[in-house]
């Protein structure tokens, strides 16, 4: 029997052999390209788009069949801000029919959707702060083999309130783990139907007005493992400091002083699949995600 290659298969095959390069983008336009969207347009398979510090004012569309990473300097350093959180249908990052795209280490805000994934495969959204988008912070529809890991998804910001934290519908082998989803005006994690092939694990979904984890169709309930609903005790949310706190130092949490350990410390999984007890759910600091060894756990305050 004669075998034929589809265009997508051919493109993915080419992606696996082409060398990668780093593309540097700066918020003042002085990088390799003027903005993120232009870099996406000219990027080749396996490239990394490295975002500098500052605020990038863009709505970025990704329609690509080859691996591409977009990586910020950290949630406290790199912000990608859409043009209008009230413009229905807009997204700070939109992925329609995309394959193998990763978004990491940035603050994503001020569009109708922060991240919108539709009919896509192999999308990873990791270690970001997604906050202040008009309707939904992260939406994942009809997509396969995606991972949403280690994000803090907050529905309450200076830009306005968000209805849904994470809206998930009808995917295949989607993993949602280690995320903190707090303060949405409607649901924190909303699954209207066809969610049976999702793994929802080690998330803290807390203080969402109309429900934390809401599943409408219980005939297709996803696999739920070790999700909790507790105050995550950020270091200083009023100053947008989403680093978790331990009990060594009293800090301001909202309008009150906290001197107790965040329930997120040492809870979660380091690889998104196997629990090891050393990863903090949704934890970020100026170094990025807290991926720590046993020694580092003992010296956690020094690490910060």
Radius of gyration (CA) equals 19 Å
CATH superfamily: Single-stranded right-handed beta-helix, Pectin lyase-like
Q: Which range does the strand content fall in?
A: 35-45%
Describe the strand arrangement of the main beta sheet, using strand numbers. Answer: 1-2-5-8-11-14-19-22-25
Characterize the biggest β-sheet. Answer: 9 strands, parallel
Q: Could you give the distance between the termini?
A: 60 Å
Structural class: mainly beta
What CATH first level would be assigned? Answer: Mainly Beta
Number of helices: 4
Which architecture does the CATH hierarchy give at level 2? 3 Solenoid
CATH topology: Pectate Lyase C-like
Low-confidence stretches: 1-5, 286-304
Count structural domains.
1
User: What value does the average pLDDT take?
Assistant: 83
Tally of DSSP β-strands = 31
Overall 3D form? globular
Helix content: under 10%
What topology does this entry show?
Blueprint: H1 7-15, E1 22-25, H2 36-42, E2 47-51, E3 54-57, E4 60-62, E5 68-71, E6 78-81, E7 91-96, E8 101-104, E9 107-109, E10 113-118, E11 124-126, E12 129-131, E13 136-141, E14 147-149, E15 152-154, E16 156-157, E17 160-161, E18 164-169, E19 174-177, E20 180-182, E21 189-191, E22 198-201, E23 204-206, E24 213-215, E25 223-225, E26 234-236, E27 241-244, E28 251-253, E29 256-258, E30 279-285, E31 288-291, H3 294-298, H4 300-303
Parallel strand pairs: 1-2, 2-5, 3-6, 4-7, 5-8, 6-9, 7-10, 8-11, 9-12, 10-13, 11-14, 12-15, 13-18, 14-19, 15-20, 18-21, 19-22, 20-23, 21-24, 22-25
Antiparallel strand pairs: 16-17, 26-27, 28-29, 30-31
